[in-house]
Amino acid sequence: MELTGHTILITGGGSGIGRGLAEALHIRGNQVIVAGRRQQALDAVTEANPGMANMRLDIADPASIAAVAARVVADFPALDVLVNCAGIQHPDDPSGPIDDSDLVSTVAINLLGPIRLTSALIGHLRGRPSAVIAHVSSMLAYLPKTDIAVYSSTKAALHSFALSQRYALRDSAIQVLEIAPPYVQTDLLDGASDPRAMKLDDYVAQTMAALEGDDPDILVPIARARRDNLGRTDSEAVVAFNDMMRQTRP
Fold it and tell me: How many other β-carbons are positioned within 10 Å of the β-carbon of residue 226?
């Protein structure tokens, strides 16, 4: 991915990985728009980064998604990159009852939101000469953590969607990336103070380096080693399977 000269919408851009990527891309000379639910956090980001814009977005609300999609295309017609980074994480225990409100909000924000926003913007992005859709999943899409089972499941589903979308758009000008972070020091479940987690600045720097390459799976070295150790070759397997099914359909 070319890292300059883009107009980029980043959801979840008010904090954590979303803010880190937004600021790193802003420094590279891109027009960055951060979106999220907390207006105060968004304002703090744009005040610290003159030239950056923000839009309040409730990624769990289809009406909010439709309104923001229309506004961003109207206000920033050069939009050519979407980064789906908004996410929420609740502790749970799949061996017992799971709180239904936590279940619904996690699925709505982590899975339905990215799909809905991408769907709302896909027509516009198809008209751009070199567009990018980047879905931020997680290494937990490959190896779930059992005390955040619903979160892990939504990331696995987003991983699957990214693979399907990448195949479906393989002959278009849109590049579909999947950014799969390891455990990073963010505010999700108080991870910011956990020494076991990767420092956010280190993660962002390594992710920016990975984005400059040609691999659509954006993995920092520690995450790539863990993924490869699982023997996963999903991208290649999806292409081979779908090509086979297309060829053998009666």
Answer: 16
Q: Report the C-alpha gap between 126 and 119 in whole angstroms.
A: 11
Give me the pLDDT at residue 117, please.
98
The DSSP line for 69-105 is HHHHHHH-TT--EEEE---------TTS---HHHHHH
Tell me if residue 215 falls in helix, strand or coil. coil
Q: DSSP 3-state assignment of 239?
A: helix
Helix (H, G, I), strand (E, B) or coil at 182: coil
How far is 234 from 163, CA to CA, in rounded Å?
8
Q: Are strands 53-56 and 174-179 parallel, antiparallel or unpaired?
A: unpaired
Write the burial class of residue 174 (CB in 10 Å: 0-12 exposed, 13-18 middle, 19+ buried).
buried
pLDDT in tens, 116-163: 999 999 999 999 999 999 999 999 998 888 889 999 999 999 999 999
Q: What is the mean pLDDT of residues 198-205?
A: 95
Residue 51 host element (H or E):
none
Collapsing DSSP states into helix, strand and coil, what is residue 56?
strand
pLDDT band of 237, cuts 50, 70, 90: low
Q: Does residue 249 surpass a pLDDT of 80?
A: no
Residue 62 corresponds to which tokens in the numbers above?
Answer: 């289809």
188 CB contacts (<8 Å, ≥6 apart)?
Answer: 16, 87, 88, 89
Q: What is the pLDDT of residue 59?
A: 98
SS3 per residue for 160-172:
HHHHHHHHHCCCC
Q: Is the whole-model pTM more than 0.90?
A: yes
